[in-house]
């Protein structure tokens, strides 16, 4: 038995019932992208049943170009998040069976954003001063402070609407391993505050031509209880991680990993692991939607990335066996047509493909952790503390 879980990072499908509490009422990532580009052509997703999902959401947003399938290949539904937050770690942890209430600590927008004692300790232990110390989007702050940072040998440290302590450095001048060590220092300093992630944001180049590299690394807060990954691993079920999954789960409960940096290499890793897997659980994150297009407010690029993934799925689906299960979902929204540059609190799509099985309407699931409970039931391990299986 094999279960493949693919998270399309940030591909929300409409604002959540509590979106107003997060300032996100009216956000709808996938429907608004479709509207912005004059309709999406996603034949594989359409056959699976993506267009059948909007009617089960709290406020249906049609997906222009993706009509409901008369006989969808996959069971379909939507999920609302029960944890407090709208960030990557919160979403993935809930998918893996956890509930965060209260959520992670959020820093104020600043400047300054970070407590002075944290800044002082970080500068002392790393031997470098910081610039920034405010909420910012990654590319603009790199352009704003990149030259000064490079000239003076300082870190660029910033946060966002998420629970993050982000450290950017020009690795042409500051070695990548030194940046990673600085992140380890920050992770330890941020643990008492329950900060979700410390993120290494390496870039290189010169003023006006800075480019982020794919050497990003996330340092997550340690989960408070075992996730589905750890439960499977301890039960002898192999667990494969693709993309930033190993970082999100602090390297716990994983048998094999491929820390890819973009959708294309993640898709290749899924194919490679699938070719060797006889049994097991594969958890993959496809990061481009969020990293390259959501935060940068690029609906056209986002749409093109969806088309590419649709084409990849067309080639991957025929490789699945009758005993396999493919689950496709997302961790939050990031509507590139919405205000700001941050994640949006949305319900997320749920597609469950089991070759040869009759598709069902799975409805609106109250909690992402229904996925973890479903995976547990599929492998016959003990039930998790929360969630209802849809398998």
Report on this model:
- The chain is α/β, with parallel strands linked by helices.
- It folds into 2 domains: 258 residues, Alkaline Phosphatase, subunit A (3-Layer(aba) Sandwich); 105 residues, 2-Layer Sandwich (Alpha-Beta Plaits).
- It is built from 12 helices and 15 strands.
- Strands 1, 2, 3, 10, 11, 12, 13, 14 and 15 form a 9-stranded mixed sheet that branches.
- α10 runs antiparallel to α11.
- The mean pLDDT is 96.
List the SSEs and their pairings.
Elements: E1 2-8, E2 14-15, H1 29-36, H2 43-48, E3 75-80, H3 88-95, H4 116-126, E4 130-135, H5 138-152, E5 155-159, E6 164-170, H6 176-190, E7 197-204, E8 211-212, E9 217-220, H7 228-234, E10 239-242, H8 245-248, E11 256-258, H9 263-276, E12 280-286, H10 288-294, H11 299-316, E13 324-329, E14 346-353, E15 361-366, H12 370-379
Parallel strand pairs: 1-12, 1-13, 3-15, 4-5, 6-7, 10-11, 10-12
Antiparallel strand pairs: 2-14, 3-14, 5-6, 7-8, 7-9, 13-14
Helix pairs in contact: 1-11, 4-6, 10-11
Do you know the CATH topology of the largest domain?
Answer: Alkaline Phosphatase, subunit A
CATH evolutionary superfamily of the largest domain = Alkaline Phosphatase, subunit A
Annotation, overall tally of beta strands:
15
Q: Which regions are unreliable across 5 or more consecutive residues at pLDDT < 50?
A: none
Overall spatial form: globular
CATH architecture of the largest domain: 3-Layer(aba) Sandwich
What is the CATH C level class of the largest domain, in words?
Alpha Beta
Number of domains: 2
* N- to C-terminal distance: 13 Å
State the helix count: 12
Structural class: alpha/beta
H/E element order? EEHHEHHEHEEHEEEHEHEHEHHEEEH
Strand content: 15-25%
Query: Rg to the nearest angstrom?
Result: 20 Å
Q: How much helix, percentage-wise, in residues?
A: 25-40%
* Mean pLDDT over the residues: 96
Assembly category: single chain
């Amino acid at each position: 038995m094999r279960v493949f879980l693919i998270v399309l990072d940030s591909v929300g499908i409409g604002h959540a019932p509590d979106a107003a509490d997060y300032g996100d009422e009216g956000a709808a990532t996938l429907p608004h992208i479709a509207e912005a580009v004059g309709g999406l052509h996603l034949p594989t997703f359409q056959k699976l049943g993506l267009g059948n999902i909007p009617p089960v959401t709290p406020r249906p947003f049609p997906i222009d170009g993706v009509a409901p399938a008369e006989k969808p290949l996959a069971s379909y539904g939507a999920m609302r998040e029960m944890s407090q937050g709208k960030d990557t770690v919160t979403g993935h942890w809930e998918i893996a069976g956890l509930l965060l209430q209260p959520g992670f600590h959020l820093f104020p927008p600043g400047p300054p954003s970070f407590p002075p004692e944290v800044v002082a300790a970080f500068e002392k232990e790393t031997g470098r001063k910081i610039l920034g110390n405010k909420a910012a989007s990654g590319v603009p702050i790199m352009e704003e402070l990149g030259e000064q940072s490079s000239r003076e040998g300082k870190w660029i440290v910033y946060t966002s609407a998420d629970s993050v302590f982000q450290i950017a450095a020009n690795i042409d001048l500051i070695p990548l391993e030194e940046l990673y060590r600085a992140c380890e220092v920050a992770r330890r300093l941020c643990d008492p505050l329950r900060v979700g992630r410390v993120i290494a944001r390496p870039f290189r180049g010169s003023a006006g031509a800075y480019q982020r590299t794919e050497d990003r690394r996330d340092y997550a807060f340690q989960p408070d209880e075992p996730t589905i990954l750890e439960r499977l691993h301890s039960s002898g079920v192999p667990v494969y991680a693709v993309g930033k999954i190993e970082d999100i789960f602090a390297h716990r409960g994983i048998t094999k990993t491929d820390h890819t940096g973009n959708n294309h290499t993640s898709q290749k890793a899924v194919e490679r692991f699938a070719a060797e897997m006889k049994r097991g659980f594969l958890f993959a994150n496809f990061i481009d939607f969020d990293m390259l297009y959501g935060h940068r407010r690029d609906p056209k690029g986002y749409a093109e990335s969806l088309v590419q993934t649709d084409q990849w799925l067309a080639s991957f689906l025929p490789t699945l066996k009758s005993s396999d299960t493919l689950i496709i979902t997302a961790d939050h929204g990031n509507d590139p047509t919405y205000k700001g540059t941050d994640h949006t609190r949305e319900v997320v799509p749920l597609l469950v493909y089991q070759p040869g099985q009759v598709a069902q309407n799975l409805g609106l699931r109250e909690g992402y952790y229904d996925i973890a409970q479903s995976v547990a039931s599929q492998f016959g391990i003990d039930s998790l503390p929360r969630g209802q299986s849809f398998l």
